[in-house]
Amino acid sequence: MSNVVLKDVHKQYQHTKVLTGIDMNIEDGEFVTLLGPSGCGKSTILRILSGLTDATGGTVMIDGKDMKNTPPKNRKVGMVFQSYALFPNMTVYENVAFGLKMHKKPVNEVAERVGRMLELVGLQEKKGAYPHELSGGQQQRVALARSLVVRPKVLLLDEPLSALDAQIRKHLQVELRTIQRELNMTMILVTHDQEEAMSVSDRIFVMNNGKIAQAGTPSEIYTQPKTEFVANFIGRYNVFSKEQLEKLFGTNIAISAHKYAIRPESIHLQSRVSSYPLRALAGDSVMNGNVIRTTFHAGDKSFTAEQLHHRASAFERGTEYQLFVEPEDVIALS
Amino acid sequence: MKKFTIVMLILIGVYLALPIFATALYAFSTEWNKTILPEGLTFEWIRTLFQDTRFVEAFGRSVLLSGGAVLLSILFIVPAIFVIVLYFPSFEKWFQASVVMVYAFPGIILSVGLIRFYSGTSLPMILAVLGVYVISVLPYIYQGTRNSLRNVQGRQLMDAAELLGASKIEAFRKVLLPAVYPGLFVAALLSFSVLFGEFVLINLVVGSRFETVQIYLMSKLSTSGHIASAIVFVYIVLMGILTLVMAIVTKKAKGMTRA
């Protein structure tokens, strides 16, 4: 049985359409990410799921139950906000215990579950501290513990890591995934960070202009983008028109499409029997961690190629190279 | 240039503080008519003031009237501000227009309007004044409450509390109200101090039938300068205490919301 189902969900504010025909099936224990640029409607989906905002049309079901007219407090949905939304007048312990107290749990049970949850997020030492005495990462862990302690059926994460610095963010991404697997909980993450989506998700829904542009596993989304938007958003794909590509390769392309995408790392120096050849002039190279990204120019078209760092010396600025692309790496876009 | 600024600031400070200091000194002086400084110091005027039941009663009336108006504002206006700011922000412009209107009516026009409108009714005029006081502190209550709500991201706190199982009333009572309490408290103190010093409306509409500290002060101005100075001194001390409390609460509130 699907844990979370959205059927033809619409949302409109006066004359502005925010969501159009959203369909989703999210399985029990799945970690799903809604990925898209700011204003594409991903946070609105979370608010509709939580009951904080009503959909203009469509159906929302959690555990097979239609959520229409079910108030937020009865949906058994937890939510972690970007700004943490910790209660400033309560200590860490009181923040985490709040939900259990609202559910009228006995004092012993509250103490036991809060203690266990603080242990899970590594904040036992800070249980007496107030939110303003904690770092951003610690505050976000408290927010996570506070949402998890009431054992929600679904946990919604609205850009929970975006306010944190890169190192803490990466650490918490791993922690989040570990906790999700440990508890086997359905989690829906909203982010505009492609790397974050790729590293934590079972499935990704890429969104654009209030619609789902593509859904699939991180691997599917990365290797088989369906549209130019997804290709550009999810990776640094090189997008060509049919004419540009045929001119570049000097041959006809077998698959007919309006546009084509080629991943930067698919452009290489080694020739194979079926490879498409292309000649281009090397431009600037930029180091990005263990990857070197080089811009090439062929006529009026520029594109990028990526290599692992130890091979980077192969491309020298101002030198013309014979490059190759495999036919299976040329992705037709709709 | 820096020296000039400092000298100017000192001169302005002296210019502003001198009347207050002189008034306070006069409240403690035995005689101060022909000399530069008082001939002697005494607590006589302060003692006389607090022994005068008229003053104590006037003080009580001022506290009752100002405090009552602030309390009513908190009971009726604050919930409205909460609902509008959190759930109907598009209506906020109407609230802001009402706030401006409070400033638009001079006291004298307001007094004449009140007398003409309510004098023929059975409503005691003091209640009409109380009603005006409740509305006249709207700017302070509105700004204080709204700023506090925005500072603590009130809507998100309500959402978070509701998702954790609280009803709207529980979320308001257990989460939002304590979170915005410092701001609300400061707004209430500010409103109280403004109403405590109000003279025009109460004097014109009710006059000596409901003697407040300000009316009592007016009557003493023509009989004893020392007593009048003592009243002003007590008033300044009260305002000083209120300001100090506001500063402490504001500092605490800033610490609480710092992330």
UniProtKB/TrEMBL annotation, chain A:
The UniProt record lists the keyword Lipid biosynthesis: no
Keyword annotations from UniProtKB, A to Z: ATP-binding, Nucleotide-binding, Transport
Residue stretches making up the ABC transporter domain: 4-234
Highest taxon in the source lineage: Bacteria
Gene Ontology molecular-function annotations: ABC-type quaternary ammonium compound transporting activity; ATP binding; ATP hydrolysis activity
InterPro entries hit by this protein: AAA+_ATPase (IPR003593), ABC_SmlMolc_Importer (IPR050093), ABC_transporter-like_ATP-bd (IPR003439), ABC_transporter-like_CS (IPR017871), P-loop_NTPase (IPR027417)
SUPFAM superfamilies given in the database record: P-loop containing nucleoside triphosphate hydrolases (SSF52540)
Reaction(s) this enzyme catalyzes, per UniProt: a quaternary ammonium(out) + ATP + H2O = a quaternary ammonium(in) + ADP + phosphate + H(+)
Entry EC number(s): 7.6.2.9
SMART domains noted in UniProt: AAA
Complexes and interactors: The complex is composed of two ATP-binding proteins (OpuCA), two transmembrane proteins (OpuCB and OpuCD) and a solute-binding protein (OpuCC).
Protein name: Carnitine transport ATP-binding protein OpuCA
Lineage of producing organism: Bacteria, Bacillati, Bacillota, Bacilli, Bacillales
Automatic annotation (TrEMBL), chain B:
Domain ABC transmembrane type-1: 59-246
UniProt entry tagged with the keyword Cell inner membrane: yes
Predominant place of localization: membrane
Positions of transmembrane segments: 7-28, 63-88, 100-119, 125-142, 183-206, 226-249
Keyword Coiled coil: no
PROSITE patterns per UniProt: ABC_TM1 (PS50928)
Membrane topology listed for this record: Multi-pass membrane protein
Gene3D superfamilies, per the entry: MetI-like (1.10.3720.10)
Name of the protein: ABC transporter permease subunit
Organism placement in taxonomy: Bacteria, Bacillati, Bacillota, Bacilli, Bacillales
